[in-house]
Amino acid sequence: MTTRVLLPDAARPLDHATAFAAFGDLLDGRVAEEDARLFLTVMAERDETSVEIAAAAMALRERMISIAAPAGAIDVCGTGGDGSHSLNVSTAVAIVVAACGVPVAKHGNRAASSKAGSSDTLEALGLDLDRASARAAESLGDLGIAFLFAQLHHPALRHLAAVRRAIGRRTIFNLIGPIANPARVTRQLIGVARPDYLPVYAEALRLIGTESAMMVAGDEPLDELSIAGPSTIVRIGACGEGTIRITPEDAGLTRHPNEALRGGDAAFNAAALRRLLDGEEGAYRDAVLLNAAAALIVAGHADDLRAGVEEAAEAIDKGLAKQLLDCWIAF
Prior knowledge:
45% of the residues lie in helices and 12% in strands. By secondary structure, the chain is an alpha/beta fold. It has a single domain, classed as 3-Layer(aba) Sandwich (Pyrimidine Nucleoside Phosphorylase, Chain A, domain 2), CATH 3.40.1030.
């Protein structure tokens, strides 16, 4: 039974202790649905602060089912919500980066703003999500890659499922998803669909103790580095500090129109990912190489984008990424 809990005024920024307590009440199901809906909606309308994002993430992390991860493990994930309906770039990036020798704990879920999220596409490729989640720690240790299905690792979110459906728009829980990785990774490449929000998000990552991260946004906007034009990167920690602007040409790549990355359902996106790993050239490959290069910099495996592109391309062209995917499916 829901306990009537008085939430703070979401119209004004909350301090850490207040936000942490409020999100604890929400995640523990102690708040009436109408009150929870109003609280989350008002907060989203005024834009969440870095302190609130960090506090909400910490509350969720305190309640998640976590796994052990090797040193240097990384995640590549976006907040979603850019409405581009593109192919699964971050999913392909996870496989390619893992094939380069970087442990990747891929945190993901079903599609929210696209036809096929990371889990939908991996399932269409043949990955058994229940088995992959149950053996995530083993596959991360043995193969260097794991899929952490958000629905299974964050049972506390069930209390807010109906509320989030009723709101029907982005809430703070879309923002904290990438930084509530069940493997507790401290190195991340995170796509944020709002370039102007990158500094706020970066400060939230500092507050939760992130070691090395890039927050990226394409100008379109996209929640990944754009292969169509300029992008913004905010770096923190071991991979550098500050804000930079990059283009595909900076990584030695050519531009492609966003339409060339248009995705479809899970079967469509899975087939495209298979062709990519088989060596098909084009916009999808270049988008994956660009974002994989950034992830390799975050992981300390590449000094710059051009070196990262070269390393990622080699993992594809030598068949290492394809082999890794097949091994993962059979694991």
